[in-house]
Design brief:
Length: 487
């Protein structure tokens, strides 16, 4: 779940941070802990401090670069999400001013406490800034730049930007530490959704030679509910009964198994794209886009190229026997492309599956209150909904707009369930499939009731009537038009 707030815009300097390396490393530490344990060979009692809790941009001053963050390039992903968005970066942005609140630019790459605003800061942030007064930000490395990322699904990027703006509506009413944790959890949640969507997109691209889907291209920030119509929209059925309903428990496990199956098939599709990209780079004018790479599948020289590659990996020394796995693939008499890729797939599957499972466990928040995955240690994994993640989603759902201002307004439980399904693919009262089984229908009803119980326990919902129109969720921190900025 490691994350970062990479907030440097392309080209121009933002508040003195003139280089990508500084902005890209701002929060590149484990956000849920201030202590990072050493290597496995080092006794657990020996621990190294990676950084302070990232409640302010200035914490970069104490970042220890010798301790690898292992954020799986999530910082690069988030940097590219926000780098060109006026909503997040710029003079009228919401996120950057919040992260540097109480400070002013100092020198080329530093921030210092603004004494005039010190009285408006919370005690923890003020203490942190006082502590950092005698430290300086490291000089940026001009040789390192953040690699650009072309998003496979622009609508998913718009969704993350929109959710970040919604969450920042509460910047003056939710304590800073809590809101920062909300942001970190939100970023991790969206990265998981983007992975699930990307697995499906790449697989469809290679198998059907169809790039993206036509529906997502026209989705704008005010039409994000149309994401629910996308063929690559995740179908995440979450068990809210804590395993008490065996049918819900099994349905949630089946969805994880389904998504893992798509992920495993994605490995092969990704290899095909990667090797086609290497083949295409031998031609002039190739720009390296996904559309171009897949178009080379039908090139007249592709079989000859991969026949040579196949010969390299199947060559054996004189008197030696061929590897059984490679021999089994060759006996299938596939095309040179498919044979070469299948050998790579078989030989790397164990490490790829292990690493990707660890990635998804981290992003999905395995066994954490801000996550939506449960299992491990011999148990089959299933989708759930942690209380903290549910709380974040409720805070987002009740945010609306009126007369150009952000506000909070009640939403019915049924409306909230529909909102989760259309926006994120989270399923509660449906499996997303045609199923007329009475057992499944009863399980879905139990899951819906369990959601209302959870909302009641969190203080968002009071059941005053059996009528669905009166079963409404209310904001914990009401926001009026007078207290918010313009949309």
């Amino acid at each position: 779940n490691s994350s970062t707030f990479a907030l440097q815009s392309t080209g121009a300097s933002v508040l003195g941070f003139a280089h990508d390396r500084v902005a890209g490393s701002t929060f590149r530490v484990e956000p849920n802990q201030t202590i990072k344990r050493g290597r496995l060979r080092v006794p657990k009692s020996r621990e190294r401090i990676a950084n302070l809790k990232p409640i302010h941009m200035s914490t970069i001053k104490l970042l220890d670069p010798r301790i690898r963050s292992q954020d799986r390039d999530l910082s690069v992903f988030l940097y590219n999400v926000f780098r060109d968005t006026d909503l997040i970066i710029g003079e009228s942005s919401l996120l950057l001013p919040y992260l540097i609140k109480g400070t002013t630019p100092f020198g080329d790459h530093d921030l210092k406490l603004n004494e005039a605003q010190a009285g408006h800061l919370d005690v923890e942030t003020l203490f942190l800034l006082r502590l950092l007064e005698n430290f300086k930000t490291d000089l940026p490395d001009n040789r390192k730049k953040v690699a650009p990322h072309a998003f496979l699904c622009l609508a998913q990027q718009q969704l993350l930007i929109n959710d970040t703006a919604r969450l920042l509506v509460y910047r003056d009413v939710i304590p800073r530490r809590e809101l920062i944790q909300y942001l970190v959890s939100l970023f991790s949640f969206h990265a998981a959704l983007y992975c699930l969507r990307s697995f499906s997109l790449i697989l469809k691209l290679v198998e059907a030679k169809k790039y993206r889907c036509a529906k997502c291209k026209g989705i704008k920030p005010d039409t994000l509910e149309l994401l629910g119509n996308c063929e690559h929209h995740p179908d995440i059925f979450v068990d809210l009964t804590n395993g008490q309903d065996k049918t819900c428990d099994e349905l949630a496990k089946q969805k994880v198994a389904k998504h893992y199956g798509v992920m495993f098939r994605y490995f092969r599709a990704h290899y095909i794209l990667k090797k086609l990209d290497e083949f295409a780079q031998t031609f002039r004018g190739y720009k390296g886009t996904i559309e171009e790479a897949i178009s080379y599948m039908g090139h007249k020289d592709v079989d000859g190229y991969f026949r040579t590659k196949l010969a390299e990996v199947t060559e054996v020394e004189e008197g030696a026997e061929q590897d059984p796995e490679i021999k089994a693939v060759l006996d299938l008499n596939l095309s040179p492309v498919d044979s070469f890729v299948e050998i790579l797939y078989q030989k790397t599957f164990k490490s790829r599956s292990r690493n990707h499972k660890a990635l998804m466990a981290s992003l999905c928040g395995l066994n954490r209150e801000d996550g939506f995955l449960y299992g491990g240690r011999g148990k089959r994994r299933k989708y759930v909904l942690g209380n903290q993640l549910l709380e974040i989603l409720v805070q987002l759902a009740v945010v609306g707009a009126r007369n150009g201002h952000f506000i909070t307004e009640p939403i019915t439980v049924a409306g909230f369930v529909k909102w989760l399904r259309e926006r994120y693919g989270i399923l509660i009262d449906t499996t997303g499939e045609q199923n007329d089984s009475p057992d499944v229908a009863r399980a879905l009803e139990a899951n819906y009731i369990a959601l209302k119980d959870r909302l009641r326990q969190l203080g968002f919902f009071t059941d005053l009537s059996d009528a669905s129109i009166s079963q409404v969720i209310k904001a914990r921190f009401p926001i009026t038009a007078d207290a918010t900025t313009y949309v």
